Each structure stands twice: as C-alpha cells, then as structure tokens.
Amino acid sequence: MSTASSPTPRSGPTDGLADAASVVIEDLHKSYGSLEVLKGISLSVGAGQVVCLIGPSGSGKSTLLRCVNLLETPQRGRITIGDFEVTDPEADVDRMRRHVGMVFQQFNLFPHLNVLENCTVAQLKVLKRDKAEAERVARGNLERVGLAEKAGNYPDQLSGGQQQRVAIARALSMDPSLMLFDEPTSALDPETVGDVLAIMRNLAAEGMTMLVVTHEMEFARDVADKVVFMDGGVVVEEGPAAELIRSPREPRTQAFLSRVL
Ligand code: ADP
Ligand code: MG
Q1: How does the entry describe its membrane topology (predicted)?
Q2: Ligand that lies nearest to the alpha carbon of residue 71, given by its number in the listed order
Q3: Among 227, 111, 126, 216, which residue's Cα sits nearest to residue 176?
Q4: C-alpha radius of gyration, the chain, whole number
Q5: How many whole angstroms from 61 Cα to the centroid of ligand 2?
Q6: Any idea which ligand is nearest the CA of 105?
Q7: ipTM for the whole complex
Q8: pLDDT of residue 10
Q9: Which pTM does this prediction carry?
C-alpha cells in the first residue's frame, strides 16, 4: 500500500463529524438516583450557530451540557453531533470527545503545566500530533486569544480572565467542531469578563457551533441565534434571541429575565 500521498489522519468527511457540526438533542432524560434532573429535553443547534442556554440555578443546564459529551450518561433520549450519534451504545466516545471542546466556569487548567503545555498535552496524547506541530497549533490559538506572550507562564501567574482565555485556546487546539461553554464568565472579575466574551464573539463570527450556558444577556442577545430557557429540567421556552429576551411568552421566563436583566 502506498502511503506517499496519505494525508495525516484526522477528522475528515468520513469521520461523521464535519467542521462546525450541528447538535440535535431529543427527549433527553437524566436522573441521579431518584432525582430526575432532565425530564425530556429536546433542542437543536444548527451547524455554525450559537445557542445560549439560560435558566435558574439547579435547572439542569450543566447536566445537559455534560450529557452532550458523555461526561454524564443519560438514561433515555438521543444526542447527535453532525452524523455521529453520541448516545449510540456502540459510539466511540473518545473519537466524539476529540471533536467537542468544553470550557468550564472554573477553567480547569493543569496547574503543573505552563500555558503552552496546557495547550499541547491533549494534542500530543490524543491526536498524536508531533511536538512541533502541536506547539505551532497551540501558539496560533494563544495568538487568537491574545496571550501569545504568556506561553511560558503557569496558570497561577495569570488572572482569571487570562486563565479562561487559555482554556479556550486549549479547547480550540483540538480543532473542535462544537464548543460547549458552561458559565465561562461567572467566576471572573467583572473587568475581565469582556475579554472572554470578545473571544467568544469572534469564535461565533468565524462560524463555530457553540452551546453556551450564560447569564450574560447582552452577549446572548447580540450573538446567539437562539435562546433556550430551562427550568426544572424542561425547556420552558425557546426562540430567536432578541425576541425571547425582549418579549418572553411564559411567566417563568418573564420572572427569570426580570431578575437577571
Ligand atoms: P444548573 O447547571 O442549571 O445549575 P445542574 O445541572 O448543575 O444545574 O444541577 C441540576 C440538579 O442536579 C441539581 O439539583 C443538582 O443538585 C443535581 N445534580 C447535579 N449533578 C449531580 C450529581 N453528580 N449527583 C447528584 N445530583 C446532581
Ligand atoms: Mg451549572
């Protein structure tokens, strides 16, 4: 077999997970013991779209996000990313996770690795890229989040906002076709929130598919194609961002928005 012209193995059309994949969630149920947290959630994100998920604390937003990349296993329902059925018991979970970037409220950087290493470790171990290539990709993404000059610093030498930008660069270094954000600015000092949101705006403009749990209503209104309001483990209401925020139909949505706006 000739390998002379073989491309580097990576995500391609046969992978079932194209660049900027769509997400479809159908009738998702998740319980912890007798506590039913997700009670039949259905929602979709078109390829290249941004959906913001809002709702009170405890409504199941994080659980939903964690089900999408199988950090939690739902009991019932279906999740598809591109052509890839995540909830298929035969699904190759590792392959799916390579394509899904996740950014958490608490950054979760590796404290013992510097910024560059944080952005290369998964590329080396999971994607099996060589070191030079991994560092090239990482530096490109650090540039993208405005932190190229911090490559040699350790997480505890950075502000919260800078750490979160590294977390975004780290996720992007895996070339994800979907990015999940779980309250990415909730733990930040107010003056650094804007920098992180600006990077997320750029990502959205570049056509990344994004599912974002956030209380930043201005961001949701400006950037999201759709806003989904969850309460008590169900989708209460969803609609075009500006419309849902301006004139929510459901009393529960109205009450929530009047508290956060
Ligand atoms: P949100 O992100 O909207 O605040 P969560 O998805 O974190 O909501 O939590 C929804 C509910 O599920 C809460 O009642 C929470 O206590 C419960 N819960 C979340 N994770 C677990 C877990 N691992 N074990 C048991 N209960 C959990
Ligand atoms: Mg949460």
Answers
A1: Peripheral membrane protein
A2: 1
A3: 126
A4: 19
A5: 5
A6: 2
A7: 0.98
A8: 39
A9: 0.93
Which ligand lies nearest to the CA atom of residue 36 in the structure? Answer: 1
**Residues 231, 233, 236: CA angle, nearest 5 degrees:** 45
The span from the CA of 89 to the CA of 253, in Å, is 35
State the Cα–Cα distance between residues 128 and 134, nearest whole angstrom.
9
12 residue type, one letter: G
Q: Say yes or no: CB of residue 69 within 6 Å of ligand 1.
A: no
Contact in structure between 216 and 206 (CB atoms under 8 Å): no
Residue 3's pLDDT is 37
Q: Kindly give the interhelix angle for 131-144 and 115-125, rounded to the nearest 10 degrees.
A: 130
Q: Is the CB of 59 under 6 A from ligand 1?
A: yes
Residue with tokens 């739902």: 74
Alpha helix positions (H), 69-215: 93-98, 115-125, 131-144, 160-172, 190-205
- How far does residue 132's CA lie from ligand 2's centre (Å)? 37
Residues ≥6 apart with Cβ < 8 Å to 57: none
How do residues 59-92 score in pLDDT, each as one tens digit? 999 999 999 999 999 999 999 999 899 999 999 9
Indicate left, alpha or beta for 146 from its phi (over 0: left) and psi (-120 to 50: alpha): left
The verdict on the CB of residue 32 being under 6 Å from ligand 1 is yes
Give CA angle at 49 (244, 137), nearest 5°.
140
Place of tokens 């030498």: 157
Dump pLDDT digits (tens) for 13-45: 345 565 889 999 999 999 999 999 999 999 999
List the one residue out of 66, 187, 184, 165 whose CA is nearest residue 119.
165
Whether 63 is in the pocket of ligand 1, judged by its Cβ within 6 Å, is: yes
